[in-house]
Amino acid sequence: MKVSAAIANILKREGVDVIFGYPRNAVLEDAAAIGIRPVIVRQERTGVHMADALSRLTRGKRMGVFAMQHGPGTENAYGGVAQAYSESVPVLVLPQGYARRIAFVPDNFNASVSMRDVTKHAEPITVAAETQNIMRRAFTQLRNGRLRPVLVEMPWDVLGEEIDAPESYQPVVTTRYAPEPDAVKRAAEALVAAKRPVIYAGQGVHWAEAYEELKALAELLAIPVSTSLEGKSAFDETHPLALGSGGAAISGQLRHFLDEADLIFGIGCSFSETAFGVKMPQGKRVIHSTLDPADFNKNVPCEMALAGDAKLTLGMLLEACRALVSAPRDAGAVAAEIAKVEKEWLANWLPLLESDDAPISPYRVLWDLQKTVDVANTIITHDAGSPRDQLTPYWKSITPLSYIGWGKSTQLGYGLGLAMGAKLACPDKLCINVWGDAAIGFTGMDFETAVRERLPILSILLNNEAMAIELPVMPVATERYRATDISGHYADFAKALGGHGERVTRPEEIVPAIHRALAAIEAGQPALIEFITAKETRASRL
Questions:
Q1: CA angle, corner 53, sides to 249 and 82, nearest 5?
Q2: Distance (Å, rounded) from C-alpha 386 to C-alpha 228?
Q3: Strand order of the sheet with strand 263-267?
Q4: Among 47, 140, 256, 271, which has the minimal tally of Cβ within 10 Å of its Cβ?
Q5: 3-state secondary structure of 290
Q6: Residue 231 in 3-state DSSP?
Q7: CA 142, 144, 150 angle in degrees (round to 5)?
Q8: Tens of pLDDT, residues 184-241
Q9: In what order do the strands lie in the sheet with 37-40?
Q10: Is the pLDDT of residue 275 over 90?
């Protein structure tokens, strides 16, 4: 059996049923030969984004895999790998490599060297007989500890070599670990004693499926719950104790409760400092629980640290807290305060959310979208820049993994691949990406991938014919050279690629256009609605 066929065989044994890629890479053909569906994209970065979403939405049970050509194909994929690394998403990256004799010759892109900074583990296959061992190491890294991309580089002269079939290969073990019991006890005592605690939940709650434990702890101690961008939808945002999520833009109630907190409990989060995440107030007592101890005291000083799986940690905390309180606390006062602050904050934004102006307010588009679709059966993601700010604070996720949030790195065009990967993972869900006219310029051709691969997603395009978010910082460049202007008729573009496309210019047409798009999706056709919007720069940056 050739090395490429052995790798495909191992992928199948590890539960891989879809492989994303762009030729030429021998593993793509060998994977197809044994029933693994190849999904070919128009640009490598989008393929990595699709693999990223598949891993997220299946919690790694269907591991996202991307295979590409050596040289330019690998170079083009770099951004997608870097994005997955920053968001702590496991993706197996399988670049074909240059022949071993020239792998380190200058001018030849060596993926296992050049991508070390954006992967958890990077290793080339230099001896064909080591293929099983290398793949076993790769999947062990993908399924254990902090989750991040892993790369196995496959030199083209190795892929054709003959080796024994990997009959002895077994899927790798998956492990979880929990914090020290004494540390959990101290954390429980601090949570019970706190007067105004706040829970800040990250994506570790998603990966651990710790939803019930999170909800139980919040309800036991009447603690309001917020989430990071990546953690959004880990807690029902219609729950009376929900504060919502945020990035650069956040809700008023989230800012209020964080600032007034006497203790912040971060669970399954890194507390990484980023301009696109929630800014933590200084001088607060912090309990930090996450898988990777490298995150402790990285950006936010913590008084107590709990290293371990979010589900195990929350389960232990629940048991310890129940030993300290005789009954669940009354959440009435906390819930009333949340509702009051939210109402006051939202009143400032309702004029935009319900605006009848034309050009259309982007806030009105997304507000109407939320009221039109079945939110509980929808998976939605934003894009970089304004769409994220205009969606995240206002969209109330109800069910787990119904919002794909991101913000550690902010590549324009990321959302399209995420929506397509989500549709592959969850074909019964409505999968939506919200992006702007800048983002579609980066990855828009891959809307054709959605058409060709029969992935009927809904693409909401906010077209203000400008890089609106850049207007305040580029006034001279704009006035003198029109440097921030962008143009295009993207509804026609979508139709030319075989999808449903419609341009909307009036607010009263928002909902009817959404219904027409949903009908197209029901018939199996990807849909793009282009809304001509105002050059809106206002955002809830508190």
A1: 75
A2: 18
A3: 242-245, 225-227, 197-201, 263-267, 285-290, 304-307
A4: 140
A5: strand
A6: coil
A7: 20
A8: 999 999 999 999 999 999 999 999 999 999 999 999 999 999 999 999 999 999 999 9
A9: 37-40, 18-22, 64-68, 91-97, 150-155, 121-124
A10: no
Q: Max CA-CA distance within the chain? A: 70
Best CA proximity match to 112, nearest among 140, 87, 149, 84: 149
This model's pTM is above 0.85: yes
Cis peptide before 136 (omega within 30 of 0): no
Instruction: Give φ, ψ of 432 to 5 degrees.
Output: -125, 135
- Cis upstream peptide for 393 (omega within 30°): no
Question: Of 395, 379, 378, 384, which is closest to residue 462 (Cα–Cα)?
Answer: 384
CA dist 198 and 541 (Å) reads 20
* Long-range contacts, stretch 235-240, CB < 8 angstroms, 24+ apart: 235/201, 235/205, 235/211, 236/397, 236/398, 236/399, 237/396, 237/397, 237/398, 238/396, 238/398, 239/215, 240/331, 240/335, 240/338, 240/339
Count of beta carbons in the 10 Å neighbourhood of residue 275 = 9
| Residue 469: partners with Cβ closer than 8 Å, 6 or more residues away | 385, 386, 537
Instruction: Give CA 117 to chain center in angstroms.
Output: 20
Q: What is the pLDDT of residues 309-362, one digit of tens each?
A: 999 999 999 999 999 999 999 999 999 999 999 999 999 999 999 999 999 999
